[in-house]
Q: What sequence folds into this?
């Protein structure tokens, strides 16, 4: 059987950390968490150790035996992961299969090569790869898995985090939309949002700017943003991935067994989804209108 790397893709709060953790539990794998995470540019061994089991629980993630970013420690050169560039996180969010991005290709190749040098199968658990899946497939020929979750449940999770003082997910999407506002698939949404423009990009940090923007956005507006990006993401993921994992079916025993069989047949890994369940829905009393289809 050909040993292909495994690339996992999914929106934040889709269940992607759970699926990644199940691959990480396999002895044959070397699993990188969020290879496009903006924090990798300043990662240190001390920062890796900050992700304690208590932090994992606060994030609503499954219990982990090691911190999220432990696999990157051998690749840290003083400060930051070798080859990582901050622009990888949000810029060029859309890449066509034939487009060139040699720094990104070299960076991902470095991760896969480090894993194979340990005689392990590389598993990369991406977020923010949504419209780059086809490009990544063209470059690396992986076994690609898309992790899907109902958009309202994703939005509810973002909203619950925001109410607890964590704007991370909404700010990340606003930053992605800002960085790709001129692209035809993003432009219709970008035109409806308050984004940094001109000198604001030089004088105001995105976290501060978008925290203020979020205070003025109605729930219907944040949901419209999330659903727009969800439609783009799921369409691209469904088209370009070898397997789609539907987290909303996670409570079904037959479905969990079928996922195990498909993955084992494709890449030889015995991934155990026995504790997989359909995600809980937050208690939301506000009915949400359907978002318009992306342009």
A:
């Amino acid at each position: 059987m050909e040993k292909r790397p495994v690339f996992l893709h999914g929106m934040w709060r889709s269940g992607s950390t759970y699926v990644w953790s199940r691959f990480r539990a396999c002895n044959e794998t070397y699993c990188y968490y969020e290879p496009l995470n903006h924090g990798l540019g300043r990662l240190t061994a001390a920062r890796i150790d900050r992700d304690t089991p208590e932090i994992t629980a606060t994030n609503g993630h499954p219990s982990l035996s090691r911190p999220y970013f432990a696999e990157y420690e051998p690749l840290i050169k003083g400060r930051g992961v070798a080859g990582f560039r901050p622009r990888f996180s949000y810029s060029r969010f859309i890449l066509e299969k034939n487009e060139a991005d040699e720094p990104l290709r070299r960076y991902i190749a470095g991760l896969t090569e480090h894993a194979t040098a340990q005689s392990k199968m590389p598993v990369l658990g991406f977020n923010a790869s949504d419209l780059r899946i086809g490009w990544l497939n063209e470059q690396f020929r992986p076994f690609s898995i898309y992790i899907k979750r109902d958009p309202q449940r994703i939005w509810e999770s973002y909203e619950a985090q925001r109410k607890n003082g964590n704007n991370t997910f909404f700010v990340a999407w606003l930053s992605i939309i800002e960085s790709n506002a001129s692209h035809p698939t993003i432009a219709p949404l970008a035109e409806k949002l308050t984004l940094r423009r001109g000198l604001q990009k030089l004088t105001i940090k995105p976290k501060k700017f978008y925290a203020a923007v979020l205070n003025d956005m109605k729930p219907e507006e944040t949901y419209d943003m999330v659903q727009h990006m969800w439609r783009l993401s799921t369409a691209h993921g469904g088209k370009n991935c070898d397997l789609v994992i539907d987290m909303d079916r996670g409570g079904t025993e037959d479905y969990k067994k079928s996922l195990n069989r498909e993955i084992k047949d494709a890449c030889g890994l015995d991934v155990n989804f026995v504790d997989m369940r359909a995600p809980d829905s937050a208690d939301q009393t506000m009915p949400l209108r359907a978002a318009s289809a992306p342009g």
In short: Residues 159 and 165 are 10 Å apart (CA to CA). Residues 283-295 have pLDDT under 50 and may be disordered. The chain has one domain: 6-267. The beta strands are 6-10, 29-33, 121-126, 143-148, 243-246.
